[in-house]
Design brief:
Low-confidence stretches: none
Oligomer: single chain
Distance between the termini: 26 Å
Radius of gyration: 22 Å
Helix content: over 70%
CATH class of one domain: Mainly Alpha
Shape: globular
Order of helices and strands: HHHHHHHHHHHHHHH
Length: 368
């Protein structure tokens, strides 16, 4: 059977998968006695039709771009980094240490330093699983899952016994100096007209978009990216071409961990202004779905991250403004993951049968 045209693979397959997920979601909402149309309009109104909704949607989008890119880099090397949650938590620790221990004169320098610290801590946290995968053959999925739990325990220890201010009750760090607060969209000239009130979306979104551009250039326009993609296609062929699998595996996973760590700049420095125990907020796991939905391409990751940002904010609006429980957003996310990931081949095979029955135009060579 002939493969699908590229446009159908990139556009039609995800669109049909989303339609199926929406249809099943509508059935679920009907089963609890609510109106699917009312749920949809509520989500759109709460996520896209107000400045506050847009601010929250773009805030979530920022975090999901970083974790989606982290998974994408690993996928292209044939590796499944499922430890983005732990790497993001340790990245948050790097942000907190950079902001609390270094007297930055301005937020721009602090953003640069905190980003380096977040990337370094995220990369350091995946370094051991990466080495075990590259040198010992330990499966990256198992080791990164285990390191998620270790990261959560380590972070809680740091918050309770090291970073918690004297006399404070909640496990969190001290607040960062006020001059290190990242500008939010309502504080940026030009954007303040669109966002008249305070919103969590901040300048980290531009950092996320820059990261997407850098990863695109890295994967498709650099020797390092060529080695990563060659290893992901066939390790045997990569070895034959002189590409060292150990070095390439380490490189890909360290970049992946650094991207996951960068997510914490948005949550920790851009929003909370301090380090909290739940600073990653599940974004490391959502990044897996974002990468699948985005077909492991940076542009697709940005679009998929916006979709999940819409679902996250719209689902919150459902929980607050209707009788539909807020957990419905988890159901929607799960259905999107199911149809875009696990059942992707079902949609693809159906489309291949349809395209196989369509009349084909004769090629120019045959016509001549």
């Amino acid at each position: 059977m002939q493969p699908l045209p590229k446009w159908a693979d990139l556009v039609l397959v995800p669109l049909i998968s989303l339609t199926l997920a929406a249809f099943v979601t509508a059935l679920v909402i009907l089963s609890i006695g609510e109106s699917p149309w009312f749920a949809l309009t509520t989500m759109v109104q709460g996520a896209l039709m107000t400045a506050s909704g847009w601010g929250h949607t773009l805030f979530y989008t920022t975090s999901f771009i970083f974790t989606g890119l982290a998974v994408t880099v690993g996928f292209h090397a044939g590796l499944f980094n499922i430890g983005g949650e732990g790497q993001a938590q340790l990245g948050g620790l790097g942000v907190a240490l950079a902001c609390l221990c270094i007297p930055w004169p301005h937020w721009t320098l602090a953003l640069f330093g905190a980003s380096l610290a977040a990337a370094a801590f995220g990369a350091a946290w995946i370094a051991i699983p990466a080495w075990l995968q590259a040198k010992r053959g330990s499966h990256i999925v198992i080791t990164t899952i285990m390191f998620n739990y270790i990261a959560a325990s380590l972070l809680m220890f740091m918050l309770v016994d090291v970073l918690r201010p004297m006399g404070a009750q909640d496990p969190s760090s001290a607040r960062f100096p006020a001059e290190l607060a990242l500008p939010r969209f309502n504080q940026i000239p030009g954007l303040d007209l669109l966002f008249p009130r305070s919103v969590p979306a901040n300048v980290t979104l531009f950092l996320a978009l820059a990261a997407a551009l850098v990863i695109w250039l890295l994967l498709w326009h650099s020797r390092t990216g060529y080695r990563i993609r060659a290893l992901g296609k066939s390790e045997g062929a990569a070895r034959y071409a002189g590409i060292g699998p150990v070095k390439t595996t380490m490189t890909a996973l360290l970049i992946s961990g650094a991207l996951a760590g960068l997510m914490s700049v948005n949550n920790v420095m851009g929003d909370a202004g301090r380090l909290l125990g739940n600073s990653a907020a599940g974004a490391g796991f959502i990044g897996i779905a974002v990468a699948l939905m985005g077909r492991n391409h940076p542009l697709g990751v940005v679009l998929a991250a916006f979709l999940f940002g819409f679902i996250f904010q719209g689902g919150s609006e459902l929980g607050f403004m209707t009788a539909i429980p807020i957990e419905m957003r988890v159901v929607i996310q799960g259905l999107v993951i199911l149809f875009t990931g696990a059942l992707d081949m079902m949609v693809r095979m159906g489309l291949e049968r349809v395209f196989a029955r369509l009349p084909r135009r004769p090629s120019k060579a045959k016509a001549a």
